[in-house]
Each structure stands twice: as structure tokens, then as C-alpha cells.
UniProtKB/TrEMBL annotation:
Keyword Phosphoprotein found: no
EC number: 6.1.1.18
Key words of the record: Aminoacyl-tRNA synthetase, ATP-binding, Cytoplasm, Ligase, Nucleotide-binding, Protein biosynthesis
Gene for this chain: glnS
Species of the source: Pelagicoccus mobilis
Domain (Glutamyl/glutaminyl-tRNA synthetase class Ib catalytic) ranges: 26-335
Enzyme class, spelled out: ligase
Name of the protein this chain belongs to: Glutamine--tRNA ligase
Catalysis: reaction(s): tRNA(Gln) + L-glutamine + ATP = L-glutaminyl-tRNA(Gln) + AMP + diphosphate
Amino acid sequence: MTEEEKPSNFIRDFIDEELAAGKHSQIVTRFPPEPNGYLHIGHAFAIGVSYGIAQDYKGKFHLRFDDTNPEKEDTEYVDAIKEDLRWLGADWGENLFFASDYFEQLFDWAKGMINEGKAYVDDLTPDEMREYRGTLTEPGKNSPYRDRAPEENLELFEKMAAGEFDEGAKVLRAKIDMAHPNMNMRDPVLYRILKAEHHRTGDKWKIYPSYDFTHGQSDAIEGITHSLCSLEFEYHRPLYNWFIENLPVPHTPRQIEFARLNVEYIITSKRKLLQLVNDNHVDGWDDPRMPTIAGLRRRGYTPEALKEFCERAGVAKRERVNEYALLEYCLRQDLEGKATRRMAVLDPLKVVIENFPEETEWYEGPNHPADEARGKRKVPLTKEIYIERDDFMEDPPRKFFRLGPGREVRLRYACYITCTDVIKDDEGNIVELRATFDPESRGGSTPDGRKVKGTIHWVSATENVEIEARHYEQLFTKTNPNEVEEGQTFIDNLNPDSKNVLKVYGEPELANATAGEPFQFERKGYYILDTESEDGKLVFNRSVGLRDSWGKKQQKK
RNA sequence: AGCCUGAUGGUGUAAUGGUAGCACAACUGGUUUUGGUCCAGUCAGUCGGGGUUCGAAUCCCUGUCGGGCUGCCA
């Protein structure tokens, strides 16, 4: 690790101190997803923090599924999460674990706590428990069942485990302090009765440990040195430590919290993402508008761009919201070097080059302007072509460098054309342009060395491939989708125009596009073949548009 | 209200008692067969008040503002 590459942060500083004090022989971190949804960009950040630290300190990285709530969890999610993790480049090697692997051990520890008088079976209903817990300002009061004898507790707990009670009838609680200022310490629930089918243990268990009773102990069992999690668990840390201190665990992990990653226009609540999918506001978890890893991948984001974004966002202790522009910058930055260049016309305007021969002429364009090794492709030019509608103006302002009546521009990679006539329909709409080309300009320059201000992209009107291009806007209209008027929900902030489908003409070479290969449609944006493409039907997703300082300038006027 | 926690340009993040730096955004200009990329530059910041100190973004006190916490979710 070098300082230049990895800026330090408070977690790394802390680890450095511990290492200097000889506290660890090896750093071990973990990523603990609950398999109840798909991974999203916020998870990519969390993974980057834990995996990055494990890598940089030459330590180990565990993947542990936190599967203590069978009602919400499923193997479908386990598989999807693994795939996303691999794609992101996080390698857990042999270290794949499940919290459910520790159910037996956790059960033994619970019984141990009962024997020591540190846990008891409570018959209070959920409502009663809430009442007894007190409030933020007032202490709670002891449950009438709090002082049951260990023998009775043990018997009851065994019966709970044997399925002799209904769901919700009883819970096992730690006996800590009902007046504790930290609500988490007011006799937290250790086990609850749940008769759902667990994705790994089936119907073996009728009771399941709570997150608090599972997480730290799992860390301890695995020898995790630094259990990195988000800020919301700060308040749970005293409890995390309490279990580590009160149970005969083999190791003492340390929980350190950091702020989640938030991005403008993006929601990262699993519950809300699930709602978008279930209510068909989007086309599934991998909809290119979704902030899920699957969605971003389909949209054309690369692991490198995501990683760069996470690193630039940094690790902090306060809630923050990153600008969407940074995310786009990171993608463009990565794609600029990777994307194969092609030409496609998104909003066609036909141009007839009147003095152009009837035969097709073939020109060559580099696959990448800065990398000759990537070769060239041939592009056919014919008498009739399409250009971009906004590359022509009948009455252009002074700073407009593109085509206009009497103006000359360069067709990229090909030749110069001059607009000679504008053809309109009855309503005055421009439907076609007439032009002439300079035979001397073949190749893109002329012997007289005259300059043309503009170079525009084009596609033959007769030798092209028709493709469907999908353009996406923000899924939400507000930078903070959760900001709503009284009585509304985030659903009301959905952008009705977040998906636009265009019929586009592309140069013939585009027919050979392969899945996962990034393209730049020159002067327009970065695109990638969509998973819905089939033989004869090419569908491209726009990953992100090119920066457009001209368009931006125009919008301001 | 109680407890926990935080506050540096528009945004994000460094500086750990010694010149407030970097990136994105915005804006200029240069290069360019992409109004892209690249290059150069400009704009702009320590929440308020007190204190300690030769010296404070940093330490102390205090105020203000923000986030989190009252699931048998994680």
C-alpha cells in the first residue's frame, strides 16, 4: 500500500495504530449481507471498504451471509449476491460462511447465559414489551417474568426450540438493565420463535437468534479483527461488546462504524427497491435505471468505474450525499479508454449528396483514436446519408460550427459536404437536405488545406443497421427521492420519463457488437448491448452521454 | 426530551498544534477529423461565541445546526 494510491481514513489510521502496537498478526474483515435482496451501489461501497482493507493489509476477507430471518431470505439472493461480488472483483476465496452455520453454537451460548442467570424467557406480548421498555427519556421496567429460575428458563427455552409454543408467544431475552439510557441494552431479545422454512437449515429450527445475538459472535468465531459496518449500528456497539465480554468467545473483534454512501437521485433502501420491482415501476432488479449492481452492470457501468467512484467518495463518519456528476465522471473516465468508437445517428435527417457517385465508397475509421493497435473498421458512404437533426440549422448563430445553408462541414472519416438546399414539407418542417461534396476532400482534407469548422458523424441511409437505443434519465425527479410532501411517498417522486426508446441508424459494423463490449457512439455517448438483444434485433443501452458543453451552453439561453 | 454522534469551498474529502490541499462541479483559454479526450488556469472553505498557546480546522468550554436510537428486521 502506498499513501498516494490509497488515501488514509480514520479506520486505516486506527488499524495502523493497532498494528504498531502489535495487536494483530493479520487483519480479517468481512462483508455480511442478508440474503433478502440484491446488492446495490451502497453495498459496493461497503465491500470496497472492507475488501480494500483486507487486501491492502494482506489480510483475509470473509463473505458471510447474515441469514437469521428465514421469513425474508432466499437462496436466489445468495446466488445473485455472490455473482455481483465476483463481478465487483471481491474474492472471498474459501471464506464463505453463513450465520446459520453457527446456530448450534449460538444455542449453546444462550443456554449458558440462562444458566448464569444472564438470560430469561419472557412471556410478554410484543405490545407489552414495548410498554415495558420505556421511552427515550423514561426508564423501562422489569418484566414480571424476569426473575424466573434458570432451571425453568432452560426448560422453557428447550420447549421453544422444540416448537411447543406459537410464534410470538415467548422470547429469550438478555438480563441487562431496563433503565439503561441506551435502548438496545434494555434486555434485548436473543431468540424469537419463527416457524418459517430456512433456506439452509430447512425446518430444523423453530427459534432464530436476533441480529444482535448473532453478529458479534459470528465475527468472534471467524476471527474477524475489524467488523466494519454503517453508522446506524453505532448504537448497537455497547451490546455487541457486551456479548463478546459475557460469552466464552474465542476472539475479540472490534466494530467500527462508517457512513453509508448516498448519491443524488438514488435510493438504497432494500425495502423501497423491492417495492419498485414488485409494483412494476421498473423492469426487475436488473433494470438499467436501478442502482443495483445488476442494474448498473446492464446499464454499462464497469467494476472499475464503481470502484473509482467509491474511492473518490471516501470513508467518513458523517452522513453525506455525493453528486451524481461524480458517478458519471468516473464512468466516462473509464469508458473513454475502453470504448470502441462507432457512428450512429439518433435523430436522423436525410441528406442527398447530389454529385456523389451511385456506387458505395468505403472509408476507414480507427476503432479508438488514441490506440492504433485496436485497428480500423470500414464505413460505407453512399449518395444518401443520415445526419443528426441538430447538426443542421437553417439560421445558425455565429458560434454554430455545424451544417447550415451554404456551409461546409466534414463528414467524419470521409469528406467535405456543402449544404445546397433545404427541403420542407407543407408545414414547413425540414425533411431533407441537398448537398454537394468535394471529390478532392476524400480522406478528410483537401490539397488547398482549407479548414472546415465542424466535423459531424453520419450513417449511410442505405447501408446501415437499425438499432433500438434506450436512453435513461434519473429514476426520480428529486435529488433526494425521499423528500416528499405530506401524505406522499417516494413513489410520487418517480420520473415518468426515465426511460426513452429511440429508433437509431448505426454503421454496419455495429451488427457485430458483442455482449459486454462498451461502445462510444461518436459525439453522443457510451452504449452497451442490452441483454434483451436478439439476432436481428439490436438493443443498446446508453450508459452515459458524452459531456456536451455546446448543448449545455444552448440550454442556458 | 434523554442517550450516541457529527459540523472544512456548490459537492465530496485531506491536513492529527506549524503555509488550509486534492477531486468533482462551475467558469476561461489551448490542442483536436468527436463542441469528446487531453493540457493550462480561474472561482470558492474551517458553523457561532469564548478560552489555552508564540501559533488552533485541530485542544478546552459554550451555543447553534445536522444525523441516529423507543422491531420478536438487519
